[in-house]
Amino acid sequence: MKLLFQTLCLCLALGLAISHHGGEHLQADEPAHDHSQHHGAVLDRCDGMEMDAVAVTEIGTPYFFKGDHLFKGFHGKPELSNASFSELDDHHHLGHVDAAFRMHVPDAPEHHDHMFFFLDTKVFSYFNHTLEPGYPKDIRDVFPGVPDHLDAAVECPEEDCKTNMILFFKGDDIWHYDIKTQKLDEKEFTSMPNCTSAFRWLGHYYCFHGHQFSKFDPMTGDVHGRYPKDARDYFMRCPKFGDSTNHVEREQCSHVHLDAATSEDNGNVYAFRSHHFLRMEGEKLHSDTIESAFKELHSEPDAVFSYEGHMHMIKDNEVFVYKIGEPHTHLEGYPKSLKDELGLDGPVDAAFICQDHHIAHVIKGQTLYEVDMKATPRVPIKDGPFPLFKYVDAAMCGKDGVKIIVGNHFYHFESLKAMQEATAAPESKRVSTELFGCDH
Ligand SMILES: *[C@@H]1O[C@H](CO)[C@@H](O)[C@H](O)[C@H]1NC(C)=O
Ligand SMILES: *[C@@H]1O[C@H](CO)[C@@H](O)[C@H](O)[C@H]1NC(C)=O
Ligand SMILES: *[C@@H]1O[C@H](CO)[C@@H](O)[C@H](O)[C@H]1NC(C)=O
Fold first, then answer.
1. Domains identified in the chain and CATH numbers
2. Is the separation of the CB atoms in 69 and 78 below 8 Å?
3. What is the pLDDT of residues 175-204, one digit of tens each?
4. Which of 6, 48, 153, 168 is most buried (CB neighbours < 10 A)?
5. Could you read off the pLDDT of 264-308 as tens digits, one per residue?
6. Residue of minimum CA distance from atom 2 in ligand 1
7. Contact at 8 Å (CB) between 42 and 114?
8. Is the Cβ atom of 96 under 6 angstroms away from ligand 1?
């Protein structure tokens, strides 16, 4: 008991421990803008809104806060924040969250992975959507010296900032807060815009301002490369947005999940996301709308696989088949029902055929099916459970084996056999940088 107590005191003395990966965010509090949206009106992030705060949950889902609403992940509709974090309301007439981040403190489990929210003068600590006892507290009691009414905050683990820190933002002021020593160091980040929210995602730091963002170095505040960019290009799934922007770069670098992907026998890769697709022929990249190249499909396939020069595209309970060429031509008689074509009921999550084979592998939830494309009628054989992933967005098989794509990551297996025999997922790699060659 004594030991436990000492440990607890140590952790409290550490302040809030250590932060580490995860994202965070912050938000802004500009009195001038659209308070009308804070209550009731339909919020559409594809309109180009400025977020109040961004943070990653303990399970890695980014949450974007706007007014009294919250968007979970990079797509989907707004929800009331108080449905997920009810006390934010009790203690406050929730206008909005000013700032938020996820604490990563492996050596202080009582703070590890907690989400911290800042509202006016108070700070809230949540784990698993449950408010920790004793919270909310005054910001000054938990983070001495840090001002009230923040605009943004983001954690910076020691691998990026030498010691575990939190960056706080208010107006054009920026502070480094050392979690262990509680030392607050004001920084001059002259090239940084005023951030209204900030976020660590996949090891990079993003400052959001308006509907744009800039990627910055958390130690120096330097912004390298062409910024600001539009947040809708990289952090949101906005079907109707982007006609005037660079499709290739957006599709290469977006953090939004893919709908489907396929590798053709000649090694070309097609990846589908919302209303757009990306084609990779070696190093050469091309992007266009699905509507323009696969008109009948229109958008958002569930799964796509390549077989004998044709692309089979599954959407809900239908299969569209295109002969690959310039232009791609939709085969007569299609779409056909998925049940008639593959003997399966939709929706399915992913599908692939490995080179020189005629077995379609279809992933549906956590089950893998095999369908022999040469058999008539085609009958699915349940190949077995596929427990390595809770869900799969897309999958493809090429000369170098199978790639399973989940969110922003993919998992590479040397072969189909290696995948079927695996008892654990291999190391994850990033879709944007390692699959599509995005340089940032
Ligand atoms: C959540 O907030 C909305 C409006 O902001 C309010 O109408 C509703 O009663 C609140 N729900 C809870 C459970 O507090
Ligand atoms: C999170 O909360 C839910 C109920 O709200 C509970 O069922 C679950 O066990 C909790 N998870 C953890 C890790 O505490
Ligand atoms: C940034 O914040 C400062 C206040 O700290 C303010 O004076 C300045 O106008 C802001 N700049 C912009 C572009 O909003």
1. 45-234 (2.110.10.10), 247-435 (2.110.10.10)
2. yes
3. 999 998 999 999 988 888 999 999 999 889
4. 153
5. 988 999 999 998 999 999 889 999 999 999 999 999 999 999 999
6. 82
7. no
8. no
